[in-house]
Amino acid sequence: GQDVPWWQKAVGYQIYPRSFQDSNGDGIGDIPGIIARLDHLADLGVGFVWLSPVYASPQVDMGYDISDYRAIDPAYGTLDDMDRLIAEAGARGIRIVMDLVVNHCSDRHDWFLKAVADPSAPEHDYFIWRDPGPDGGPPTDARSVFGGPAWTLVPELGRYYFHQFAPGQPDLDWQNPDLRAAIHEMMNWWLDRGIGGFRLDVIDLIGKDPDAGVFAEGPDLHPFLREMHDAAFRGRDTLTVGETWSVTPETALLYCGRDRDELDMVFQFEHVTAFHHPERGKWDPLPFDLPVFKRTLFRWQEALRDDGWNALFLSNHDLPRQVSRYGDDGEWRVRSAKALATAIHLLRGTPFVYQGEEIGMTNTRFTDPDEFRDIEAIGHWAEARARGEELEDFLTGVNANGRDNARTPMQWSDAPNGGFTTGRPWIGVNPNHAEINVAADRADPDGVVAHYRRLIGLRRDRRIVSHGQFVAHAEGHPQVMAYARELDGERLSVVVNLCAQPVSFRVPKGLEVEGESLSANVTPRTQVRGTLDLAPYEAFAVMGP
Ligand code: TEU
Ligand code: CA
């Protein structure tokens, strides 16, 4: 079809390497394990992988603390394994987009070791150092995302360094042009190796001014992104997607507008944070509210209607399993997993599938802090306990929104540990792996995988799915998400009942269509008009003139 970037017709698949497939029995997923599972991705039809970090790392934050940007962590494999993954994936038409964490590195990175050993070393100024505050304590009251202060003292220097995240993740000082040049050089080193692009971790933070208390979307952010584009992306057929928790529909085009020469897409999180308590955040989840959910997604469809491009997702390695958070992980698990996929995959933008989402994997249940592996939960439990909070209250939040829910091992079969490892897994496998696993789901022609494969195929093959204009409908309807896509006189009408009750849905005029059933999770329909009796979690799409 018309010359559009490859990633506007492709679906991404996020792999969290530690939990995807172990190949050597040490209980930790690895790159040879990923290579062994590429046929699963090829069968799904995804066009690229977003690979969470596999670089050398002490694993304080599961690889989001990089100690050598040009080395693969031995637990995951070698650079040869990485080259093999790029080649094997490429042979299946799948690009490898790597996670790049450059807002901070690890405190075990050579740069930081030199910075501490010798204040006059050039690497010292790759980081943000400040003298103690007037009381001898941290320079400001900034807090770490993982609990505790965002400043840590290096006694031998008598100075504090800034870390938005763990003390093991010192922020890099992007004000330093030598640091920026070193990052750009490393990015080109990877791009020259044949990767398909980057997912840029918390990239909205690199323009920070900690003295002014400005952390996200600082004054230098866009100049730095334009410089990065010129230094590493210009002229390459890559995909760049920024993780930007602070972005809004009003600021999105500053990142991904066609004439901005910065990034191709950004991950926004308004449909996630809409259900976080305003004060207590994710640890005190608000009940799902469909009109709020729809209003957010529809607002983003409008905002990027003529420029920019949406990244569409409900799950990732930081988020709870979507069928538990937004669907029904009990009686209607399979059908609601398909309904959520239909709702997201037929919007305008590039959908991302998180490993396990394609078989309707669910949250797990934590009963003891010893089961936590995520530094964020560990850090926030320490603060909650210090505040005298009860464990069961904190566990409610962890079981609803804790990041470890997404990090339990991929469930491949009903073998021990779900076929993920023959060893002792680094994190507990969800007990429901005996029923919920790839082998079982694939055996069902009506399984969740089959539904995802079809949706992914529609994006690849039907221009109305990839490029049709979005039209919102029934925005206020409390149970049904309905919208249309329109292109060249054709309409694709999408209707999704996102609740466990039957619903009688009066079709708005602008949504009416008669024609071909493109997708259905109950019975195929060819008509959208009048009043429809929708079954619980029934979802379908009909295309016609
Ligand atoms: O996440 C950014 C981030 O801040 C999230 O951890 C989020 O704020 C948190 O889950 C509370 O909702 C990115 C990575 O995706 C995450 O895995 C890393 O831990 C973090 O940055 C630091 O690199
Ligand atoms: Ca392993």
From TrEMBL:
<feature type="domain" description="Glycosyl hydrolase family 13 catalytic">
    <location>
        <begin position="14"/>
        <end position="407"/>
    </location>
</feature>
<dbReference type="GO" id="GO:0004556">
    <property type="term" value="F:alpha-amylase activity"/>
</dbReference>
<dbReference type="GO" id="GO:0009313">
    <property type="term" value="P:oligosaccharide catabolic process"/>
</dbReference>
<dbReference type="GO" id="GO:0004574">
    <property type="term" value="F:oligo-1,6-glucosidase activity"/>
</dbReference>
<protein>
    <submittedName>
        <fullName>Oligo-1,6-glucosidase</fullName>
        <ecNumber>3.2.1.10</ecNumber>
    </submittedName>
</protein>
<dbReference type="Pfam" id="PF16657">
    <property type="entry name" value="Malt_amylase_C"/>
</dbReference>
<keyword id="KW-0326">Glycosidase</keyword>
<dbReference type="InterPro" id="IPR006047">
    <property type="entry name" value="GH13_cat_dom"/>
</dbReference>
<dbReference type="InterPro" id="IPR013780">
    <property type="entry name" value="Glyco_hydro_b"/>
</dbReference>
<dbReference type="InterPro" id="IPR017853">
    <property type="entry name" value="GH"/>
</dbReference>
<dbReference type="InterPro" id="IPR032091">
    <property type="entry name" value="Malt_amylase-like_C"/>
</dbReference>
<dbReference type="InterPro" id="IPR045857">
    <property type="entry name" value="O16G_dom_2"/>
</dbReference>
<dbReference type="Pfam" id="PF00128">
    <property type="entry name" value="Alpha-amylase"/>
</dbReference>
<comment type="similarity">
    <text>Belongs to the glycosyl hydrolase 13 family.</text>
</comment>
<keyword id="KW-0378">Hydrolase</keyword>
